[in-house]
Write a structure and sequence with these properties.
Elements: H1 3-15, H2 18-25, H3 29-43, E1 48-51, E2 54-57, H4 59-87, E3 92-97, H5 103-116, E4 121-126, H6 129-137, E5 143-148, E6 159-174, E7 184-185, E8 195-198, H7 205-213, E9 223-226, H8 229-237, E10 243-246, H9 250-256, E11 260-265, E12 272-280, H10 286-294
Parallel strand pairs: 3-4, 3-5, 7-11, 8-9
Antiparallel strand pairs: 1-2, 5-12, 6-10, 6-11, 6-12
Helix pairs in contact: 1-2, 1-3, 1-4, 2-3
Length: 296
């Protein structure tokens, strides 16, 4: 089965429509639809309920997500292994990141190094935070940038960690909500609101993190995953929920989301946030070792 078609299928499952997937993959909706027709014909089952203005997964389509992810992940692991071996004596760095939010920190970290080493090439991989750690530990990636939500986060013994930023979380509230007039807030005042978060996989990891982090103020049912950062931000902007954001990115987020007010949290809770660079302690790629050694 064609790996690119499986990636297209997973993109549709992630973003909720053929059109959204087409935009993310820089394809036409017609090309996306044709790929899905080919997968359905190959499998001999219907994966989608297609209507004029709506597309949804069938029961078999939902079940197929796990299989497709396993196939794509296995292929990605094998591909990355080959790339790592070919990059061992080259100027290529394989860098993973877990969300678009991390791109700001990636740029800050690599700006001076890439300016001083113009021949170095960066290849990017987007994966969940847990998967990034496993890939770095197994020498499937050179480096990864990922958030952490506790100062005592544990890591695989093979992994080295350098903190890029360390601060706290703030809560984003729509400016349509009267509570946005404040500069800080007690989360008890928001306990009945949906808490929206973005994750690039079906994992409930962040749901569990936020449930424990905010001491059960919000039920797990309230803490809801959305399929894109853009969707999360728009829903918060129109007062359909709230969200938690890293304070170091609040000024950037304010520019991108003028209808969201970012409030400090008054409660005596774990509001810790950091973004970290992780690497394999036994990394032998000379370019990667040079970068790690130069990191301040």
């Amino acid at each position: 089965m064609d790996i690119n078609k499986l990636r297209t299928f997973l993109t549709i499952a992630k973003y909720g429509s053929f059109r959204s997937a087409a935009e993310k993959l820089f394809l036409s909706p017609r090309a996306v639809s044709k790929q899905m027709d080919q997968i359905e014909n190959e499998l001999g089952v219907k994966l989608f309920n297609r209507q004029k203005n709506n597309t949804s997964l069938t029961k078999l389509g939902t079940e197929f997500i796990v299989t497709a992810e396993d196939i794509v992940n296995s292929y990605t692991d094998a591909y990355n292994k080959i790339q790592m071996e070919s990059a061992s004596d080259s100027n290529k760095i394989l860098l993973g990141f877990s969300s678009q939010n991390q791109s700001t920190f990636v740029q800050q970290v690599f700006e001076k190094f890439l300016a001083a080493n113009p021949d170095v090439q960066i290849e990017l991989r987007e994966e969940s935070g847990k998967r990034l750690q496993a890939m770095v530990a197994a020498n499937r990636l050179h480096l990864a940038v990922t958030p952490e939500y506790g100062a005592d986060t544990s890591h695989d013994p093979a992994i080295g960690v350098k903190k890029l930023v360390e601060d706290e979380m703030v809560v984003g509230v729509s400016k349509l909500n009267p509570l946005s007039k404040r500069e800080s807030i007690d989360l008890e005042l928001l306990r009945n609101r949906p808490v929206l978060y973005y994750n690039n996989s079906e994992s409930t990891y962040l749901q569990d993190v936020f449930y424990k982090k905010y001491d059960g103020i919000f039920s797990k049912r309230q803490i809801q995953r959305v399929s894109s950062i853009e969707q999360r931000d728009l829903l918060i902007a129109i007062d359909r929920g709230i969200g938690f954001f890293p304070r170091p990115l609040a000024s950037v987020e304010s520019t991108l989301n003028p209808m969201i007010k970012f409030l400090n949290i008054n409660n005596e809770l774990n509001t810790y946030y950091s973004s970290v660079l992780i690497y394999n302690k036994k990394e032998d790629n000379p370019v990667v070792r040079q970068f790690i050694a130069s990191f301040k």
